[in-house]
Design goal:
Number of strands: 24
Shape: globular
CATH superfamily of the largest domain: ATP-grasp fold, B domain
Structural class: alpha+beta
Strand order of the largest sheet: 3-2-1-4-5
Helix content: 25-40%
Largest sheet: 5 strands, parallel
CATH class of the largest domain: Alpha Beta
CATH architecture of the largest domain: 2-Layer Sandwich
Strand content: 25-35%
Number of helices: 13
Bound molecules: adenosine monophosphate, glycine
CATH topology of the largest domain: D-amino Acid Aminotransferase, Chain A, domain 1
Distance between the termini: 53 Å
Amino acid sequence: MSAKSNKEKVNVLILGSGGREHAIGWKLKESKRCGKLFFAPGNGGTDALGENVPINPDRVDTKTVDDIDYFCRNNAIGLVVIGPEDPLAQGLADRLANDDRKIFGPIASAARIEADKAYAKQVMKAASIPTADSRVFKDYFVAESYVKSRETPVVVKAAGLAKGKGVIVCDNTAQALDALALCMKNKSFGDAGDTVIVEERLTGQEVSILALVDGRNIYVLDPSQDHKQAGEGDTGPNTGGMGAYCPTPLIDEKMMNTIQSEVLVPAVDAMRREGIEYKGVLYAGLMLTAGGPKVLEFNCRFGDPETQPLMMRLKGDLLEIMLATADGTLDEVDLAWDKRCCCCVVMASGGYPGKYQNDKLIKGIAAAEEDKDVKVFHAGTKKTKDGVVTAGGRVLNVCAMGADLKEAQAKANAACAKIQFEGAWYRSDIGYRVMK
Ligand code: AMP
Ligand code: GLY
């Protein structure tokens, strides 16, 4: 079976194990054309939608590629969706592509926009995309004297992929010097910190703008806002994301058009001028500064947890949308949004983002989902003979739809209150920055 003939069912393999992948699978499953659905490796919730396959795509070595390729051939996979950045940056999309299957996710040269922050800055400069002023350093002592010469606060960033931990927002010179040492001397982020970006520290609210790009066409998805800090009111250490809501009223249509024409289109065009065709999701993390929106980072994939509310609100056939993105025919598919708001609250393990324990039995998911506006996506979970247990820091993504953000947040929090596992915690203020 191939994805080429229009009306045939398409078997899908989703790579990844987070709430993002569970949400994508849940939406794909709604498609009339969705055939068999597989997750590699998936989690304790994804096997209710399809089958979990014991392949881990994080390290793209020859064996992993061969295993995935063999699995795809044996199961007539017509679409492979690559969720996380690591396999994209390592060229998994390049290596899996062939005539019988479509790949959702950019090739390595395009994924570099996330995997190499120095390259991303270069693209932004070449395309005059608004971003923080920055300098790139490969030598510790040169970086050190630059930091000492700065009078305003800076942010120090490891240039490579560092599991979301390589960005250090500094209040003063001493912190910035510590951050440089962490990256370049102590090698805390491995090779990812060999090159460092030092940039001006911006202030403002952050928004996530995700767009589908098919090589030619760009379709910007509704704007959302993530909550990276662990504590209520954006306090405490950074996490992978404690919740998100969509749409955010911080971006009106006019600003969305500005972001499309001044950020997304120029980025895709700049890469095209280098001979790089961008296909997949292009995600711009923006700060809304007094001087207008500025790019903090580009990602080459769907955001987590932003994807969960996006999937809850998406109207349209995600399978057709993903195939069209791979085919360069995005202009031919229908895509619309539920007018309501979705709030996603992340339930985490006790101790996260520090040390935490796994294997805590989870109860109450079915009770939480009794409200038809609530959907619980799994992230760090696994199935055992006793039931579903915790298997990660961010455990569940509790999503609720509401007429407005206030209602969506209240429903999501009420659903979280019905779910129990030892040590469970969550932020009950997701969306507070825009709520009266
Ligand atoms: P990044 O992975 O580059 O998005 O950075 C992670 C987080 O660090 C962002 O979500 C921001 O909260 C913060 N950050 C990154 N760059 C800057 C900057 N130039 N000014 C202020 N905060 C920043
Ligand atoms: N939610 C932030 C990210 O996916 O990078």
